[in-house]
Structure formats: C-alpha cells, structure tokens
Amino acid sequence: MTDSYYPGWRASVDGRPAPLLRTNLLFRGVPVPAGSHRVRLWFDPLSVKLGFAVSAVALAANLAGLALYGRWLRRGALGAGGAGRAEVR
To answer: What is the number of other CB atoms lying within 10 angstroms of the CB of residue 11?
Structure first.
C-alpha cells in the first residue's frame, strides 16, 4: 500500500488479526501469504476512545452540576427574600 503509516491502524487477513508493518519508513504494509486472501484495514486509535470517555464523563458531570444547581435554587439557597429570588404567586 502507498498509504501513510500512523498508529491506530489495525489489520486482519482472512478474519485473523495480522501485524501492520511500517514499510519504506513511511507506508503501511501487511504480510500476506501467497494465494487469494481478504485483507481488512481499519482505523481504531486509542485517542478516539479516550476522547469519548473524557467527553462522556464531562457531560455527566455537567448534567449532575446542573441538576444540583437547579435543586439548590428551588430550595431557596439564596436566602429568604434575598436578591435574585423571585416569588411566584
């Protein structure tokens, strides 16, 4: 292949994991025995998985913070009759 080598690429030959090699210092290569075979390449970087996990934790923390803030406001944490508290009739 004349595609650039980059960490995170995975390969399989006939459904079995295969090593992905750096060839000619820049390209990707997969050793394939003689004959007809199915070679599959896919991009599965760890950075994307870590980014998704960090984003999910940040989203959960923000939602929890908003819920707690809303609860704090409903309980009148700003003080009875204090600035910022509106009374609804």
So the answer is: 19
Q: How confident is the model at residue 11 (pLDDT cuts 50, 70, 90)?
A: very high
0.90 exceeded by pTM = no
Q: Give one DSSP letter per residue of the chain, joined into a string.
A: --SB--TTEEEEETTEEE--EEETTTEEE----SS---EEEEE--HHHHHHHHHHHHHHHHHHHHHHHHHHHHHTTTT-TT-TT-PPP-
What's the distance, CA 37 to chain centroid? 32
